[in-house]
Structures are given as structure tokens and as C-alpha cells.
């Protein structure tokens, strides 16, 4: 998924100075942005006060939206570098095309994982016909410096491991949780898991003390570590936990993100992750010039997304918090 903001902000992320070494509970603000005309989404990373959780550097929560009478998601071809994109659905379906020639329809409970590496372009759209409701999350993972020049790739995993506990089923879509390992390739220690909680569930999720964590309630009435976790808000939990209490007063879904704090400082602009402003400027200009770096997406019925203008200020990597 693209950052469709016509004037995207520069996000400077990474470094461990802003990572608390002990458990915290910070309910982070969200920002409404538009994923095309009339399609608002909640941007949760990067946000004011917190730019990353482990290597997770971008999180949009969208829906549930009634798309029975319209075209649904329509994200035209756009580029990425230096990251992985993760498509995760609770309802609906998304048709992925990319410049490698990949064509896949991602459905609820399936992992669509694209590794941009040194450069790729892709599009995402609701297929025709499509299901009437669209609800999901789009996430990005920053690649460490030694891996960000890797060859681009796309994988579609339909069989993911599930860990069960009384009142809870946890699908591990990326990384490892309680001994269950996702088939998705990762380049740093991290976790992406989706917990389906039954009404009345009282569960303890095992955690890694050296990871930092955050939780997003996708639906339902949930408390995390004793505090309400409202739908569409990211609850940052810090480090130093070996377990996490979750409680549900209705059927609910909760995404848990974690990872070893990302030590490198990075620059994010539009759909690019780099290390310097000069790199970002080069990526942006290459896309504007239709350079072969990003290839071409075939089959999408419409023009590609134009490159936005660069900001007037220098692009510099800074800390992971504002």
C-alpha cells in the first residue's frame, strides 16, 4: 500500500535512545489520511511520539468499510525501497500486482509479503467482483542496512501457524511466537501476530523481554495489561515483559507487534526507506523519470502514482521519537 499523501512528511526513525527499557503503557494518537477519494484510514506508525516498534515502521488500519457499491481499494502502481510490506486482512480481498510479474489475491488470514529490497513497484486493488466489506492493516518493516540492497521478492502464504489458549487463537503472520514460526522471511528478530479473542477471554500471551511491543485492537472491547485498548489506537508497551495480559468483554481481534529495537537510524519519505536524504532524493527522481530501477506493473487499469515533490528542508535521520 502506498502513502497517498500528496505532501508526505519526512519521518526520521530508529536508534535506541527513545526505547524505554521497562514496560510502559502509552496510548498513541492516530492520524486520519485518505487512501484515495472517500477512503479514510488511521495512520498509527509513524506518529507523534513514536516512529517505530522494533523494525515495524509503518502501520495503517482501515475499515471496516462497506464497499459493496463501489470499486473498493484502488492503489495505483507506486514504488518502494528498503522495506517489506505486509498485507493483513480481516475482511475483503486485495489483488496484488508487482513489477516482478506477481499476481495474487490476498484474503483474510493470509500473508501477502513483499520485499522491496533495492527497488520494486506494485499496485493493490479490490478484485472484480469483490466481497462487500474491507477491513485490514497494512504494515511496513524496515530492512537493516545489510539487507536493504537485496533482490525484490513477493510471497503469498496461505497456511500460517496458530497458537491456541483458552479463549484465544493467535495467528503468527510474521516472526515467531511461543515456538510457532511464520513461513514469511524476516531480516531482523520481530513478531507480527493476530489474536482472535472470545467474549470473556482472559489470556496471558508469552513475550520476549528484549523485544519492544505494541498492540492494536482491530475490533471488539479489549483491555491490555489492565488498560482499555480502544479500536484503532496503538498501545505502545515498551520492553522488559515476559508476558502480557489481554482481556475481552466481547469477541475481539488484536494485533500484537514486536521486535528487537531497531538500532540504525533511517529516513522515510513517501514510500521509500533510506539512510540519507541524498538516497531518498535519488529514489524519488528515479521514479519520476520512469527509471528501470522500479520496473513496471502490468495489468492495472490506470496510470501510476506520480512522485510527490521533495520537502524544502534537508532530509536527515534523527531519533525514533519526536
TrEMBL record:
Every Pirin C-terminal domain range: 193-288
Domain Pirin N-terminal: start-end pairs: 42-141
Family matches, as InterPro entries: Pirin, Pirin_C_dom, Pirin_N_dom, RmlC-like_jellyroll, RmlC_Cupin_sf
Pfam families cross-referenced by the UniProt entry: Pirin (PF02678), Pirin_C (PF05726)
Parts of the chain that traverse the membrane: none
Similarity annotation: Belongs to the pirin family.
Protein name: Pirin family protein
Amino acid at each position: 500500500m502506498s502513502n497517498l499523501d500528496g505532501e508526505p512528511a519526512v519521518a526520521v526513525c530508529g536508534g535506541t535512545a527513545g526505547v524505554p527499557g521497562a514496560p510502559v503503557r502509552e496510548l498513541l494518537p492516530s492520524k486520519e489520511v485518505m487512501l484515495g477519494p472517500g477512503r479514510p484510514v488511521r495512520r498509527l506508525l509513524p506518529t507523534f511520539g513514536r516512529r517505530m516498534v522494533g523494525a515495524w515502521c509503518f502501520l495503517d488500519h482501515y475499515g471496516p468499510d462497506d464497499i459493496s457499491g463501489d470499486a473498493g481499494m484502488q492503489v495505483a502502481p507506486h514504488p518502494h525501497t528498503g522495506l517489506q510490506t505486509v498485507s493483513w486482512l480481516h475482511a475483503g480481498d486485495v489483488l496484488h500486482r508487482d513489477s516482478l510479474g506477481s499476481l495474487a489475491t490476498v484474503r483474510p488470514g493470509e500473508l501477502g509479503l513483499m520485499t522491496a529490497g533495492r527497488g520494486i513497484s506494485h499496485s493493490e486493488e479490490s478484485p472484480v467482483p469483490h466481497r462487500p466489506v474491507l477491513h485490514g492493516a497494512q504494515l511496513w518493516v524496515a530492512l537493516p542496512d545489510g539487507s536493504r540492497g537485496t533482490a525484490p521478492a513477493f510471497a503469498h502464504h496461505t497456511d500460517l501457524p496458530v497458537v491456541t489458549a483458552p479463549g484465544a487463537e493467535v495467528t503468527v503472520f510474521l516472526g515467531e511466537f511461543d515456538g510457532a514460526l511464520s513461513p514469511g522471511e524476516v531480516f531482523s528478530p520481530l513478531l507480527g501476530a493476530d489474536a482472535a479473542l472470545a467474549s470473556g477471554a482472559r489470556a496471558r500471551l508469552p513475550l520476549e523481554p528484549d523485544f519492544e511491543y505494541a498492540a492494536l485492537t482491530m475490533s471488539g472491547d479489549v483491555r491490555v495489561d489492565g488498560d482499555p485498548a480502544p479500536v484503532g489506537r496503538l498501545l505502545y508497551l515498551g520492553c522488559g515483559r515476559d508476558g502480557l495480559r489481554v482481556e475481552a468483554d466481547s469477541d475481539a481481534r488484536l494485533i500484537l507487534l514486536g521486535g528487537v529495537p531497531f538500532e540504525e537510524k533511517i529516513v522515510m519519505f513517501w514510500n521509500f526507506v533510506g539512510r540519507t536524504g541524498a538516497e531518498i532524493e535519488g529514489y524519488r527522481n528515479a521514479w519520476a523519470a520512469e527509471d528501470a530501477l522500479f520496473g513496471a506493473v502490468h495489468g492495472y487499469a490506470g496510470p501510476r502514482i506520480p512522485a510527490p515533490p521533495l520537502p524544502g528542508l534537508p532530509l536527515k535521520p534523527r531519533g525514533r521519537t519526536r
